[in-house]
């Protein structure tokens, strides 16, 4: 019996384990939010203004539009969500929107993803409950959900690359390109030019309207400017959306009439089905408005893209000499005027982090890292219960220039090493460096460091030309809110700029007043000489002088740039009790306060950007200003002014004739938008590392 038992143990040990089916690397959850039934009453009028939020693993992944004054709302909205694991349920919450106040909770429900059948659309009814009062009936939501496994071509390609790593460099380079091409996170760009509206519905008492347009595709939202008092508005605006699905998607368009002091009036809607449009072609669409009157005229272009990818450290295109040489050739000066939109490539290696802040009650954290470049946002996997995580991921972006690189690690902290708008040339290619983490507001340090290695390859000519066109609008931003502290801070920034102008005027006036005879005599002689010999080229030449003078001071080690004072606002927004009282007082003029707040920020930002251009805050832009001013000096010196003005006038008058759908922009303001303001300089300044050793070294030195 003992021998039989030993034989059985031996057979079990030598037997091959039963192979388990491979689990998908990621799932795609397609959800159609249909409607709600018998929702809870939260307003005094006996109705509610409901909207729905979807959350997975504590993170908000979708928010629906708000249906006003309806307990049986019909949304009919679609959302495509990427899910890493089925263990985390879909958490659905419903809120009542209250203008200027805290939104009221209307119920929640869980959808357990493990119970869903793959590749099949299921109609689901979720009963809404309040965890504090589970016996209350808060109505229900009707959904249609489809769960689809997303088997990773990228993972398969990764393993295939590792098995064939020792092949010749030619095939290796081809394999690297294939892997990055298959690892794209968004498939293309949808460019929409809003041209005009025709025959819109009058909504005001004067027989006219103040129309504006809202665009929405998934999480991406845009809003056009408002054209007052017209039924045939001319917008001439352009919006770009990222296309994440190969089969296309839908762009929902709604038209609204702006009303001051009350809710805006709905004027109609229309939809663009992108699956009916082919790529690399521009369509002129005349879309009639449903539930309203009139037509919208749009230009729609779908462009295929290979702009973003994420991979492991073993798959790194810049480490391959042939691949790197091809990229360097693509962005060489000889190809400066070929495909002007392709400015360069940014590759970020996220290695690891050390000494992160413990965010959980257990003394640990579940950190992940996010890398942002304008509207591109890539994220690593989560390392659970670890304050010293290792990610070893490579992020690859196609740089459109003038964007920022942001790094974060869960709610533990965020690291921003470069100022917004053209910080990338300051990076030392291939240098593995530790960056100190900043707080979420980017105004002060927090615990921990992150190790990154960044490579930036770009064409300087394309980058310079790129600064003269409008900067890409960022659509992932917080909704503006009224803040007394922020309003005061923006006012102080404007006051500093105005005081600089006043002090300059006082200095010039002191020359007229002869407060200092020596200075007044020099000013008088200089004035006579300049006026007697004035030529127009002296204007850009005079602007070149402070640039050259500050550069000489900086190069000699005498940095005259003032250290920007940190944001004095301890918290960007006040506490809940203070905020509610302030909101109640300004309920009727909230829109006006937000407009004034944003206007102050805009004025202060442009004043600070002009100063920072001459202060060499961003050396690349200061060099670009020197080149532009030098060219302007040379052109104006050799060409008579009348010819320059004539050419400018002819170009200005014939611009619309040559291209009826051109979108106006101001090149000078577009250039200044790339220069960081003082607030951005503070937020994106690199922190100095703590000279004390890291936690790992401390443990080794103190084993006891």
UniProtKB/TrEMBL annotation:
Q: Name one GO molecular function term.
A: calcium ion binding
Q: Where is the signal peptide?
A: none
Q: Which InterPro entries match?
A: C2_dom, C2_domain_sf
Q: Do you know which Pfam families this protein is assigned to? A: C2 (PF00168)
Q: PANTHER family, from UniProt?
A: C2 DOMAIN-CONTAINING PROTEIN, DYSFERLIN-RELATED
PROSITE patterns according to UniProt: C2
Has the keyword Transmembrane been applied to this entry?
yes
Q: What is this protein called?
A: Multiple C2 and transmembrane domain containing 1
Q: Provide the coiled-coil residue spans.
A: none
Give the gene that encodes this protein.
Answer: MCTP1
Keyword NADP among UniProt keywords: no
GO CC annotations?
synaptic vesicle membrane
Which species is this record about?
Scophthalmus maximus (Turbot)
Source species, domain of life: Eukaryota
Domain C2, which positions? 9-126, 170-287, 321-444
Residue ranges annotated as transmembrane are 524-549, 620-648
Q: Which SMART domains match?
A: C2 (SM00239)
Q: Which family does it belong to?
A: Belongs to the MCTP family.
GO BP annotations of the record are: regulation of neurotransmitter secretion
**Key words of the record:** Calcium, Membrane, Metal-binding, Transmembrane, Transmembrane helix
């Amino acid at each position: 019996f003992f021998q039989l038992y030993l034989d059985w143990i031996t057979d079990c040990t030598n037997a091959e384990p039963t192979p388990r089916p491979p689990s998908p690397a990621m799932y795609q959850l397609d959800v159609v939010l249909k409607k709600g039934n018998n929702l809870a009453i939260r307003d005094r009028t006996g109705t509610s203004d409901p909207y729905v939020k979807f959350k997975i693993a504590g993170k908000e992944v979708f928010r629906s539009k708000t249906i006003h004054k309806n307990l049986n709302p019909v949304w009919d909205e679609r959302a495509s969500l990427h899910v890493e694991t089925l263990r985390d349920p879909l958490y659905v919450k419903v809120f009542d929107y209250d203008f200027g106040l805290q939104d009221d909770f209307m119920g929640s429900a869980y959808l357990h993803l493990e119970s869903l059948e793959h590749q099949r659309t299921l109609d689901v009814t979720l009963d809404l409950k309040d965890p504090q009062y589970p016996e209350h009936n808060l109505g229900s939501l009707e959904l249609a959900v489809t769960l689809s496994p997303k088997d990773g071509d990228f993972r398969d390609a990764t393993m295939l690359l590792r098995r064939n790593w020792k092949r010749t460099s030619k095939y290796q380079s081809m394999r690297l390109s294939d892997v990055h091409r298959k690892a794209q996170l968004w498939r293309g760009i949808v460019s929409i030019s809003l041209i005009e509206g025709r025959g819109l519905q009058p909504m005001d008492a004067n027989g006219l309207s103040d129309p504006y347009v809202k665009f929405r595709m998934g999480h991406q939202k845009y809003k056009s400017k408002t054209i007052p008092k017209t039924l045939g508005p001319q917008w001439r605006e352009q919006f770009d959306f990222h296309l994440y699905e190969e089969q296309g998607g839908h762009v929902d368009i709604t038209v609204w009439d702006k009303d001051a002091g009350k809710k805006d009036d709905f004027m109609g809607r229309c939809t663009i089905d992108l699956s009916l449009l082919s790529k690399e072609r521009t369509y002129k669409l005349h879309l009639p408005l449903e539930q309203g009157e009139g037509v919208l005229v749009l230009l729609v272009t779908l462009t295929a893209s290979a702009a973003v990818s994420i991979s492991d450290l073993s798959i790194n295109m810049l480490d391959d000499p042939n691949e790197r040489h091809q990229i360097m050739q693509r962005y060489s000066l000889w190809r400066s005027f070929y495909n002007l939109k392709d400015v360069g490539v940014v590759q970020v290696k996220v290695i690891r982090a050390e000494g992160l802040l413990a965010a959980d009650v257990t003394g640990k954290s579940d950190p992940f890292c996010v890398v942002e470049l304008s509207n591109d946002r890539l994220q690593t996997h989560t390392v659970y219960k670890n304050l010293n995580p290792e990610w070893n991921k490579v992020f690859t972006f196609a740089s459109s220039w003038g964007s920022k690189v942001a790094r974060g690690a869960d709610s533990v902290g965020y690291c921003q090493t470069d100022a917004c708008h053209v910080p990338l040339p300051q990076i030392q290619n291939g240098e593995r460096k530790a960056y100190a983490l900043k707080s979420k507001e980017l105004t002060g340090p927090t615990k921990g460091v992150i190790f990154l290695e960044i490579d930036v390859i770009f064409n300087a000519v394309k980058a310079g030309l790129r600064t003269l066109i409008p900067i890409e609008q960022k659509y992932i931003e917080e909704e503006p809110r009224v803040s007394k502290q922020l309003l005061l801070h923006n006012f102080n920034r404007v006051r500093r700029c105005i005081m600089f102008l006043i002090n300059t005027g006082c200095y010039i006036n002191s020359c007229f007043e002869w407060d200092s005879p020596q200075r007044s005599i020099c000013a008088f002689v200089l004035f006579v000489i300049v006026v007697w010999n004035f030529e127009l080229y002296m204007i850009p030449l005079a602007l070149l002088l402070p640039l050259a003078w500050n550069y000489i001071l900086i190069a000699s080690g005498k940095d005259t740039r003032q250290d920007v004072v940190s944001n004095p606002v301890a918290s960007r927004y006040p506490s809940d009790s203070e905020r509610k009282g302030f909101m109640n007082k300004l309920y009727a003029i909230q829109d006006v306060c937000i407009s004034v707040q944003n206007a102050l920020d805009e004025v202060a930002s442009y004043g600070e950007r002009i100063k920072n251009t001459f202060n060499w805050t961003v050396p690349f832009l200061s060099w670009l200003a020197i080149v532009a001013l030098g060219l302007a000096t040379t052109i104006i010196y050799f060409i008579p002014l009348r010819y320059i003005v004539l050419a400018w006038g002819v170009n200005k008058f014939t611009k619309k004739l040559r291209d009826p759908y051109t979108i106006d922009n101001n090149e000078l303001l577009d250039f200044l938008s790339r220069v960081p303001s003082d607030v951005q300089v503070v937020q994106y300044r690199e922190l100095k590392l703590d000279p004390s050793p890291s936690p790992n070294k401390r443990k080794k030195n103190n084993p006891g």
